[in-house]
């Protein structure tokens, strides 16, 4: 699935996947490549908040799962798809309404069929979630 490019707003020029119904509704989440590598981002809105006034943990974990694939995207070959095998998360700090959340990470290892990734989500410049996970690659039927 090829990404679309945002044509307006704060994330103009960034990639996103409008065909991913859940991520579009939960985010939307964006990705781009800069001089440091892959970066993902979204802006915390009211719909991302929990009752305590922080970004909901489920939203952060969904963004972490999005980032697993965003970071590993260049390791997929033509026709391959992927599913999350594991996604481990450690909450480090709260993210607040209006903050820009960003994420960076790295591929730890890309084997024949499994890709291992780790990264961090930041609320502005504060780490708020560290994550690691694995993705199973396979050919679409």
Total discrete domains: 1
Number of strands: 8
Class based on secondary structure composition and strand pairing? alpha+beta
Secondary-structure element order, as H and E? Answer: EEHEEHEEEE
Q: Describe it for me?
A:
The longest helix is centred in the middle third of the chain and has 16 residues, at 57-72. This protein is 16% helix and 45% strand. With 141 residues, the protein is α+β, with helices and mostly antiparallel strands. The chain has helices at 21-26, 57-72, and strands at residues 4-5, 15-16, 30-34, 37-43, 80-91, 100-110, 114-123, 126-139. The chain has a single domain, classed as Thiol Ester Dehydrase, Chain A. Strands 3-4-6-7-8-5 form a 6-stranded antiparallel sheet, with helices on one face. Strands 1-2 form a two-stranded antiparallel ribbon. It has 2 helices and 8 strands; from the N terminus they run E-E-H-E-E-H-E-E-E-E. The mean pLDDT is 95.
Quickly describe the structure.
This protein is of the alpha+beta class.
